[in-house]
Write a structure and sequence with these properties.
This protein has 78 residues and is of the alpha+beta class. It is 41% helix and 12% strand. The chain has a 3-stranded mixed β-sheet with strand order 1-2-3, with no helix packed on it. The longest helix has 13 residues, at 2-14.
């Protein structure tokens, strides 16, 4: 997936489109390579979400609707 980000970034730079001045790149997974590539990402607590869904499933409770805190990890692409 990060190959795509790198391809896009290379393509836009080759066409003189400035990142982040003219175009922002944002990923939604905050993988370690994002830090290396300086890509802005969102840190989504997938383990926490999974635990809550699992508990709902095994306890046979009604689905709940609640906000999950998502953290913006701002780097050089926004």
């Amino acid at each position: 997936m990060y190959k795509q980000s790198l391809k896009y970034e290379t393509h836009f730079r080759a066409h003189h489109i400035s990142i982040p001045r003219e175009l922002a790149i944002l990923r939604f997974d905050n993988q370690p390579i994002a830090k290396y590539m300086n890509i802005t990402t969102l840190e989504i607590p997938l383990v926490e979400i999974g635990k809550k869904l699992f508990l709902q499933a095994i306890n046979d409770t009604n689905p709940s609707h609640e906000e999950i805190v998502v953290k913006l990890i701002e780097r050089k692409t926004v």
